[in-house]
Amino acid sequence: MCGIIGYTGKSNNAKEIVLTGLKNLEYRGYDSAGIALTLNNKITLFKSKGKIVNLEEKLMDDSINSSTAIAHTRWATHGEPNEINAHPHQSGKITLVHNGIIENYLDLKTYLIKQGVTFQSETDTEVACAYLNFIYQTQKDKLKCIHEACQAFRGSYAFAILFEDEPEVIYATRKDSPLIIGIGSEGNFAGSDISAILDYTSQYMLLEKGEIARLTKDQVEIFDENNAPIQKEIKQATWSATEYKKNGFEHFMLKEIHEEPSVIEQIFHSHLADETLQKIDFSKFQEIHIVACGSAMHAGMVGKYLFQNYTKIPVTVDIASEYRYNTQLINEKTLVIIISQSGETADTLAALRLAKQEKATTLAIVNVVGSTIAREASLCIYTNAGPEIAVATTKGYTSQVAILSLLVLNAMKQKGLLSKELEQNVLKDFENIHSILNQVIKNDTIYKAIAKRLYQQNDIFFIGRGIDYALCMEGSLKLKEISYIHSEAYAAGELKHGTISLIENGTPVIAIATNDKLFEKTVSNIEETKARGAYTIFITTDNLNADSFESFSDITVSLPKTTDFVQPIVVVTILQLIAYEVAKLRGCDIDKPKNLAKSVTVE
Ligand code: F6R
After folding, report:
1. Which domain holds residue 170?
2. Which of 192, 324, 393, 601 maximizes ligand 1 atoms within 8 Å of its Cβ, making it the mutation to test the pocket?
3. Does the N terminus or the C terminus of the chain have fewer Cβ atoms within 10 A?
4. Ligand 1 neighbourhood includes 293 CB (under 6 angstroms)
5. Is residue 144 part of a domain?
6. Residue 294 CA: which ligand 1 atom is closest?
């Protein structure tokens, strides 16, 4: 959610450096962008509405050379996306870019207006900028000024700040929004995440809440909340710049789907011996709470069914934004599993903090190494899926499901519930997962044909029972977020309690039935929609005779049959591909769907 980058260094190329960083950060927000460059000791702003290419066009002039710049790509919170509301904002002697929300900005704005300050934009960020400038009029020590201003801000922020009287020095600070400091041989960086700087350096430091970084061309100094200089560990990025490129694929989403066979194979092979995973003693817990947002929550739903069906441990799954504001019965015997690809989602992070406060054991399943959730949870298992750039998660989701499967298998082992036969079947699935997923991905005639049937529809329904219902939720979300077709996921048995009234002649219903025990029940529900004119797409497994489905299924997809610990991953891959192909036929901007952004750092 909003990407920020700052560079100051020996190179006169700050403009290109921050534009490259911004492009890598564009998945965080892309409704407007802006840059502040120090030109002949004067800070000059360039802004544009829309994607970063528009900003780039404004900066074509080769004479625009600078060795210091801060820049921003925006996901609007306060005020529509336009040039006035775009960052950087400038007030008096201060220019800054911001990621986060200043919740008390209206109070501060009223106060500043009374002091004679005027505003151009509708943003909370301009208020923060003006407030800093206001403090700077009396507090000339820049570190003290930043501390004092930040104390008045409620909410979340990561700032990169330029002072007019020191225009080649970048100050950066954060609270509840991510910010890293990069150290390069030719200069220094501040960035929302590692992707911002990887083209130039792989060395970075994590900035903690309240710390301030002061970046000059050849030095990085970090100060604590008392303005005392501190030493920070220099870390080495584990992901490389090439992992952030499309590498020949038309879209990041397609590339990331194609990475799933290797990512999942790697998880199943390496995590069997994962120390954290082995360390979790399930006998200590009376219940499990799974908390996450969006697709990560859907992965949690799969986890719930697996845990309850196979270990009998009671599990609840909550949307983090609900969990954090409602009474939760948490104690030392609760295991709270927090799932987040980015490790920065604001609501998920708040839920984690709540669980810790209530003395629960917290286990995070996270992809981004060193992210806030990964650092704050008592235990963390990394999915190691590599960077995920497409806004719609694919390998992020399947890797979360894979880790949950391993956790359930581990709990079963500990409780003596894993039979030899099941274990052998699961291990066989783990051995074959790469080729199974490849087979699904390569069989493009089927999902392209389905996409052709769906792409001009207005409403699409997904139905299933048990784990298949959880998969319907993910399939439906994927479809609507990237193709903008309205879609709903329903527990197959629930449809007749109201929603079936929406089924008309030709309404597409995608039904998933992979569970042998629930198969006939789901088929009855498909028949009910068929009787009302639905066009049915039936997703099932190849152990069943597809010929017998003709009476109720217009298109049948028979996927390789596996154990429940792997089946959800196989099924969801085809749902991701259907969503992708539908969005492509509709000419949508697949990697950057409208109104969305990755890494939701505001609540
Ligand atoms: C949907 C999607 C989102 C995320 C959600 C949580 O494709 O990507 O629903 O799953 O915003 O994000 P993380 O996992 O980063 O906490």
Report:
1. 3-243
2. 393
3. C
4. yes
5. yes
6. 9
Instruction: State the SS3 of 354-401.
Output: HHHHCCCEEEEEECCCCCHHHHHCCEEEECCCCCCCCCCCCHHHHHHH
Pocket test for ligand 1, best of 317, 596, 600, 602 (most atoms within 8 A of CB): 600
Q: Is 341 in the pocket of ligand 1 (CB under 6 A)?
A: yes
pTM, entire model? 0.92
Of the candidates 49, 93, 43, 91, which has an alpha carbon nearest to the alpha carbon of residue 69? 43
Do β-strands 459-464 and 508-512 pair in parallel, antiparallel, or remain unpaired? parallel
Tokens encoding 343? 């490790």
Count Cβ atoms below 10 Å from residue 565 Cβ, excluding itself. Answer: 24
Q: Which residue is associated with the tokens 């052709």?
A: 452
* Residue 16 belongs to some domain of the structure: yes
- Is residue 510 within 8 A of residue 468, CB to CB? The reply is no
Cis, bond preceding 88 (omega within 30 deg of 0): yes
Residue type, position 288, single letter: I
Q: Are residues 312 and 186 in the same domain?
A: no
The residues annotated with a catalytic role in the active site are 2, 598
Contact 28, 192 (CB under 8 A): yes
Q: Answer whether 522 contacts ligand 1 (Cβ < 6 A).
A: no
Q: Tell me: do 102 and 232 sit in the same domain.
A: yes
Q: How confident is the model at residue 91 (pLDDT cuts 50, 70, 90)?
A: very high
Number of domains in the chain: 3
**CATH number, domain with residue 465:** 3.40.50.10490
Tell me whether residue 433 is in a domain.
Answer: no
Residues 347 and 407 both lie in one domain: yes
pLDDT tens for each residue of 214-233: 999 999 999 999 999 999 99
215 and 266 co-located in one domain: no
Condensed to tens digits (0 to 9), the pLDDT of residues 347-396 reads 999 999 999 999 999 999 999 998 999 999 999 999 999 999 999 999 99
Q: Are residues 253 and 235 in the same domain?
A: no
d(Cα 26, Cα 555) in Å, to the nearest integer? 38
Q: Is the beta carbon of 481 within 6 A of some atom in ligand 1? A: yes
For atom 9 of ligand 1, the residue with the nearest CA is 294
Stretch (H or E) spanning 334:
strand 334-340
